[in-house]
Amino acid sequence: MKLSEIKTILPALENVEFQLQDGTFVPEHFHVTEVGAVTKNFIDCGGTISKEKTVSFQLWNANDFEHRLKPAKLLNIITLSEEKLGLEDGEIEVEYQNTTIGKYHLEFNGKNFVLINTTTACLAQDACGVPAEKQKLNLSELSSDTSSCCTPGSGCC
Predict the structure, then answer these.
(1) DSSP 3-state assignment of 75?
(2) Can you give the residue range of the structural domain that contains 70?
């Protein structure tokens, strides 16, 4: 989800709720402690240099159990970030500490914002020596053309 998308969604909501992919919710007393621009300059194992820009939201749970972040307040935080940091419209990456700090993509399911698990991958598989994955077939999908099979008495054996 891009920053422009969340800005369009927030005015129509009564509450801001974040949900993990397993269905559990981020406790409703969470804070958005950071909104920022993150630029990652990196080189992959194949030697290709890349640059990636994202918008980072950091969610944090405190012991102020009565706290509730309303959509208008989050929109104000985003607007202030755009003004003060020159924040561009980029993909949102959410940092949230569950058992450890995780990074998530963000989607909206019509009611809640959903934290989508991220994964790592090799960006230069052709240069890194990882063998290509073999194609898996079910035996039932193989051709049932019996003309290429040996039958008793056909003389092919």
Answers:
(1) helix
(2) 3-120
